[in-house]
Specification:
The chain is built from six helices and eleven strands. Strands 1, 2, 8, 9, 10 and 11 form a six-stranded antiparallel sheet that branches. A hairpin with a 2-residue loop joins strand 5 and strand 6. Helix 3 packs parallel to helix 4 and helix 5 packs antiparallel against helix 6. InterPro entries: Impact, Impact_N, Impact_N_sf, Ribosomal_Su5_D2-typ_SF.
Length: 248
């Protein structure tokens, strides 16, 4: 079903016009959770739906002692780079010998050896994330040196091993990305539209009456990508008219 964008000049809420896999809402099916660039409104039929992914439901940690060095791994779900830096600032220990880390945000990733020989800490931590099949997660491995050097191979096995063990011990959940949608609704049809939005489990529903059109409000909400077409197909006959759908 083709969807066109009305040529009428409308005032859209700023959060509908701008937004980045992190800035698109993504709500875990088993609990509360967490890119591309910003852009203007587009018709929903013009963009492909991102795939669901699996991530950690909550923070998890584990600790191992290897040749008198203590390795403490802490992993958590993250939504973007900012939340990754915030998580690192929260869990890193300035008293530790090294605070090494890696994170994965879709196709975006970063890792850091924090003073360990290049490629012996951050990279094996990232490899553990990839092997786990999880996405949108960060792992920080904190090392307290015990006096015995592990060597390059020993460091790789230690950091990668404790990171992998930590992730295996976490509770995971499936995340279905959501899209931010805006629809123009005449006042007299708000009740009908809200009934359908509730049926399709739309979230973050807001109204903006400053549309420049008398008797019409812009209703914005987030809904799972795979429900958008069905929602439109339900709203139009319920309202007995064509309701324009706008997507960021």
């Amino acid at each position: 079903m083709a969807v066109r964008i009305s040529p009428l000049r409308l005032r859209f809420p700023s959060f509908l016009v701008t937004a980045s896999r992190s800035q698109e809402a993504a709500t875990p099916c088993c609990g509360s959770g967490g890119g591309g660039g910003g852009g203007g409104l587009t018709a929903r039929a013009m963009s492909s739906a991102p795939s669901p992914y699996t991530t950690l439901k909550e923070r998890v940690s584990c600790e191992r002692e290897i040749k008198k060095s203590k390795f403490l791994a802490v992993a958590a779900p993250i939504s973007d780079e900012r939340s990754a830096h915030s998580f690192l600032s929260e869990v890193r220990d300035p008293r530790a010998t090294h605070n090494c880390w890696a994170y994965k945000l879709g196709d975006q990733y970063r890792s850091n050896d924090d003073g360990e020989p290049s490629g012996t800490a951050g990279k094996p931590i990232y490899s553990a994330i990839v092997s786990s099949g999880l996405d949108m997660v960060m792992v920080v491995v904190i090392r307290y040196f015990g006096g015995i050097k592990l060597g390059t191979g020993g460091l790789v096995r230690a950091y990668g091993g404790v990171a992998s063990e930590c992730l295996k011990g976490g509770v995971t959940c499936l995340v279905k990305p959501k899209s931010l949608i805006g629809i123009e609704v005449p006042f007299e049809l708000l009740g009908t539209v809200y009934h359908q939005l509730q049926h399709f489990e739309a979230e973050d529903i807001k109204e903006d009456y400053d549309t420049g059109k008398e008797g019409v409000t812009m209703v914005t909400f987030r809904v799972e990508y795979d429900k958008i077409e069905s929602l439109e197909d339900a709203i139009n006959p319920a309202c007995s008219r064509k309701i324009e759908f706008y997507k960021r």
